[in-house]
Amino acid sequence: MAAGQDIAQQGLDLAGQALDNLADFAGLNGTPTPAWRLTLNGKPLDSALRRRLVALTLTDNRGFDADQLDIVLDDSDGMLELPGRGAVIAVALGWRHSGLIDKGSYTVDEVEHSGTPDILTLRARSTDLREGIAAKREKSWSKTTLGAIVRAIAAANQLQPAIPDWLAKRRVEQLDQRNESDAQLLHRLAREHDAVATVKNGRLVFCKAGDAETVSGKPFPVCTITRASGDGHRFNIADRNAYTAVKAQWQDLNRAKRGEVIVNKNTRFERRATVTKLGRKTKRKKLTAIQQKGVEPSAGNVKVLRHIYASEASALQGAKAAWEKLQRGAAEFSINLAYGRPELFAELPARVQGFKPAIDATDWVINKITHTLNDGGYTCQLELEMKLNWVEI
């Protein structure tokens, strides 16, 4: 092991002993005792160097916002050396009575020393967000599918693709990547299809935002959060009535055709078979919008998308995604859990109990979760957004 890595291991090992001390403190008076495991480059940290930890914070983000691990160490005696970067830390969190849950691996990419009193902060981010996926590329796709694009990008970055079958079949008529990284392209695609693109544990995941299901189509189990489990909450509902519909415009240059589509709360979606010029139905189906009531939006309450789409189908998909995002962001809820829950992660569906009836009746999805270990024990902070139940048949 290189000298820099030796120093990094010594510095990071300090976290473990301090965490053990915190666990012993938390175990007094019969209270639950936090448990954890930290490894550096696959090796357990030395317990003899675990007495300087000030705090450990792990933030699980949605999408391509990298998950982040922060370890803060006490250097008031000035004995710590600045560690080298590039070390890989694996983290597991939990409670001694229920065991540990793996929370992934992170690469140290930032070291900060500040004072007084002097402290050393090691900041590490998801190891899966590698350099290749952030490199600028030039490429075009024509008459393909979302699945084909995701699989191609995954292969180019040595990742395993994970995308639901129904989403993978969505048609993409034209997609140009101009001086744009794979991560930026995936983020743009996700925004257009109201999806989430992320890299977790060697897998490139592209799934429906707020769908609360695995890429195989199985729903995640719903977690329950009670008011008694938290020591602070905040509910916010924004006025989204300013937009009663979303309009998207399209222009097909090859056929010299143009038009617009409108999506609102009365829009229902069906997948219908396409028809040939001779009037015969084909096996291929396309998304079709059906207005259950007449659309009569005024000029002032329609959100008009700036992007001009290449086809009616892509415009419809873009309008649908924008409308879903508006509705899902109408309500937000956050809560601090006094008792940390390591099994929780971003995109997990949630129900809350013990608050106002309107809050309890809402279906929620975890948007962000922050795990914290410090002298106050093990806690979690959750940020949730409303889960959208959109009917598509």
Structure in words:
- The structure is a single chain.
- The chain is of the alpha+beta class and 393 residues long.
- The protein is 18% helix and 46% strand.
- It contains six helices and 23 strands.
- The protein has helices at 3-26, 146-156, 165-168, 182-192, 312-328, 357-360, and strands at residues 34-40, 43-44, 53-60, 68-74, 88-95, 99-114, 119-126, 136-145, 160-162, 171-181, 195-200, 203-208, 223-226, 230-237, 245-252, 257-264, 267-275, 281-291, 302-309, 331-337, 349-353, 364-374, 377-386.
- Strands 1, 2, 3, 4, 5, 6, 7, 13, 14, 20, 21, 22 and 23 form a 13-stranded mixed sheet that branches. Strands 9-12-11 form a three-stranded mixed sheet. Strands 16-15-19 form a three-stranded mixed sheet, with helices on one face.
- Strand 11 (195-200) and strand 12 form a beta hairpin.
- It is globular, with a radius of gyration of 25 Å.
- It starts with a helix and ends in a 7-residue tail after the last strand.
- The model is unreliable at 1-5 and 7-28 (pLDDT under 50).
Protein topology:
Blueprint (H helix, E strand, L loop, with lengths): L2 H24 L7 E7 L2 E2 L8 E8 L7 E7 L13 E8 L3 E16 L4 E8 L9 E10 H11 L3 E3 L2 H4 L2 E11 H11 L2 E6 L2 E6 L14 E4 L3 E8 L7 E8 L4 E8 L2 E9 L5 E11 L10 E8 L2 H17 L2 E7 L11 E5 L3 H4 L3 E11 L2 E10 L7
What keyword list fits this structure?
disordered N terminus, 46% strand, 3-stranded mixed β-sheet, alpha+beta, 393 residues
